[in-house]
Batch of 2 targets.
Target 1
Amino acid sequence: METGTKPDRSPWRSLKVRATVFTLIIFVLGIWALSWYASRLLQTDIERTLGEQQFSIASVMAHEINDRLSD
């Protein structure tokens, strides 16, 4: 073995590499969880809003039909 040469070491043995990869994984998982939560919340809100609008339109139409039948 020659003196002064570095032994072959895997880059995964480095604490810096492991910490960086771990931090990146946590960051990506956090972004994914936040986007999933926001999409579920937005979907629920859109469904509620559309339901209210449809009910409002149906009520207006029902009152208009009722008024015309009364005349």
Target 2
Amino acid sequence: MLGTDVAGPDTAPVILVVDDNAAKRVALRSMLESLGFPIVEADGGRAALRFLLHRTCAIILMDVRMPTLDGYETARLIRQRTQTGLTPIIFVTSYAHEDLAVTAAYATGGVDFIFAPVEPDILRAKVSTFTELYLKTQALERSIESITELNRALRESEARHRASFEQSPVAMHSLDGDGIITNVSASWLALFGYRRDEVVGCRLVEFMAPADVAPARYDLLNTFGQRETVDDESQFVRRDGAVIDTRVSARLDQHDGTVAVIAAVADITAHKRAEAALRESEDRLRQAQKMEAV
């Protein structure tokens, strides 16, 4: 069974609710309808996988205990699909936190948990936060694709290419094969507060938070492996010393024996803070419920 409420274009952000219990699906739908996103219901892992053959989702809410394919196995199979590799999966479970196999859950691709009884405000806040991050990621991917196509089309006209890159409304940087910054957009400079002459010619790791700097990680060919694109979260340090969280979508460009990287950067600091606040709020609520039960 796959119940759908999907209106509008295929690009509309869809919420997929996966649970073998129809009453629980109805309850989650009623809590989420006020957000205005299309909602799809799947009564198990197989139904969810069938849906994902044709559409992608902004977020997946997944029950843990289901027959045939449980939530963890379903998440693992979903993660094997390239087009859903970045879709946040939140496990909805009645397991007590101390009984939950947290490490195994994260290993299958989960990003968070919602524990029963589900609090509507927490559910809506988490779904809104992760959906916003998903949409930002999609926008970054479209930007990096368009910039890459522009790079190929204008390869013979370096001056035009450079002007188009530098004027991009998206925060962009380009690197050579050694991780040296070769160019940045005006939006990148505005985001980080630097002047162009303070950035171009420096290694990208010089602008990253110390905890994020690992030589092996930023060996470009190691980072990309056999892939052409990489999506990652990193912390950077602004010129004023403030540390910001970013989502970086990068594409590898190899041409005539040279290696280069073009990357789009989005500031997700507000998202990270909202996510942390939600988790703290949920923890306080659960502690209060435990105290009331004593």
